[in-house]
Automatic annotation (TrEMBL):
It comes from Sediminitomix flava. It comes from the Bacteria. This is Beta-phosphoglucomutase. The record marks 115, 146 as: Important for catalytic activity and assists the phosphoryl transfer reaction to Asp8 by balancing charge and orienting the reacting groups. GO terms for biological process: carbohydrate metabolic process.
């Protein structure tokens, strides 16, 4: 497995499903603004920043906010999201992820997180998996949003590897594009139709091993 020196993981939808908590928090905020917000609408927020997410919700409702109110609602949404997140338990790690991380460590492959979330450390600590990561690049250490490759390039740098030696695991189209833009191979986690640009697409880690990864990218 000499050609794969590091595996870089997105957080939401790859390691854990926090999308439901984001939805609950955005729904609560939309209700307060008098905007109808559905789970289908929530799909439009996948992989985009908090600022852009609120802009999309306001567009859906045909509303505008002052800068002060906009910032206030962003803070409120994050506070509500963290209320939900802080109740997370280790059993919310997605199926097969823990075994996959353990197998990578056993192979001597570097493991890094590459997430836009500013709450990544908090979530990893709640799930008790922080120690599996050699590097954590999150929303506090990057300025450019995916599909810009900054988060993954910093992950490669932090693990002492080159982009060509990295494999990225992503569930969002913007994340897949970020990996490609960074010159990395990428495994899409989810549906083929949304993630078709990835080198391979798998539904999750439940039936996917490090051996499968080696074979797929050989």
């Amino acid at each position: 497995m000499s050609t794969i020196k590091a595996c870089l993981f997105d957080l939401d939808g790859v390691i854990v499903d926090t999308a439901k908590y984001h939805f609950l928090a955005w729904k609560r905020l939309a209700d307060e603004l008098g905007i109808n917000f559905t789970e289908d609408d929530n799909e439009k927020l996948k992989g985009v920043s908090r600022v852009r997410s609120l802009e999309i919700i306001l567009e859906l409702g045909g509303k505008t906010l002052s800068e002060e109110d906009f910032n206030s609602f962003m803070t409120k949404k994050n506070d509500w999201y963290l209320e939900y997140v802080d109740q997370m338990k280790e059993d919310e790690i997605l199926p097969g992820v823990l075994d996959f991380l353990k197998a990578l460590k056993a192979e001597g492959v570097k493991v890094a997180l590459g997430s836009a979330s500013k709450n990544a450390m908090r979530i990893l600590n709640l799930l008790n998996i922080t120690d599996y990561f050699d590097a954590i690049i999150d929303g506090t250490s990057v300025s450019a949003a995916k599909p810009d490759p900054e988060v993954f390039l910093k992950g490669a740098e932090a693990t002492g590897t080159t982009p060509a030696e990295c494999v990225v695991f992503e569930d969002a189209e913007a994340g897949v594009e970020a990996a490609i833009n960074g010159g990395m191979r990428v495994v899409g986690i989810g549906e083929e139709e949304a993630l078709g640009k990835a080198n391979i697409v798998v539904p999750g880690f439940a039936n996917f091993s490090v051996e499968d990864l080696k074979k797929a990218l050989a």
